[in-house]
Amino acid sequence: MSETGSAAPPGTLPEQQVRAMFDRIAGVYDLMNSVMTAGLHHDWRERAADLAELEPGAAVLDVATGTGDLAIVLERRVGETGRVVGSDFSEGMLELARAKSSTIEFELGNALELGYADDEFDAATVGFGARNFSDLDAGLAEMARVVRPGGRVVVLEFTNPTRPPLSWFFELWFDRVVPILGRLARDPEAYAYLPSSVRRFPDPHALAARLAGAGLERVRYLITGGGIVVIHVGTVAGAAAA
């Protein structure tokens, strides 16, 4: 779930630090995800895969794939005749992903410069990784570029709830509890980065506008997880009229 470019904007970490951070926490990443979300991250990935609307035999790219959980869900949708590629710039994460599946193509890559042809995939997804793009617009544009006209781009991310009492709980959890978990995992820097990366990420309406700016049509989003998770989906422009 980790992708950045070479120049990090204010409020982010430089690419080398982010890559090193995800390499360091790879071994505890899945466990921490389950602890922090009470295991609900699996359900959220299933819902993201639903919105990709993949048929058996389809080809799909999972960007910033991390340890591969979303890619594995997608593989179940496309079946044995389909193709799933998982791309990430952290070798530590990819090593764990490859241990989970030998049939998914897990490849080292940068979300801002995807090494795939135009229109190569039927869909592209990113699960909890878009907030690590150092250039969000460039990353979204790359995802749209590699998807055929009429295909879908899906973005699954945390979002900041705005209404109490959930907003109070969210602030308490991310500002107090998550850093404690980070210290227990012996990497406080990584789990201090998580709340800050969520806080600076565009809200659902703003992210929808960014997706439209990347060339996607019929952009919509679903807020779930009690208001802390949002799933955006858009269709790549250029499909012939029915």
Descriptive overview:
The protein has 242 residues and is α/β, with parallel strands linked by helices. The chain has one domain (15-236): Rossmann fold, CATH 3.40.50. The protein is 44% helix and 21% strand. It has 8 helices and 7 strands. The protein has helices spanning 15-37, 41-52, 69-78, 91-100, 136-145, 166-184, 188-200, 204-213, and strands at residues 59-63, 83-88, 105-108, 121-127, 147-158, 216-224, 229-236. The protein has a 7-stranded mixed β-sheet with strand order 3-2-1-4-5-7-6, sandwiched between helices. Helix 1 (15-37) packs across helix 4 (91-100). The protein is globular and about 45 Å long. It starts with 14 loop residues before the first helix and ends in a 6-residue tail after the last strand. The model is unreliable at 4-11 (pLDDT under 50).
Key terms for this structure?
242 residues, alpha/beta, Rossmann fold, 7-stranded mixed beta sheet, 8 helices, 7 strands, 44% helix, 21% strand
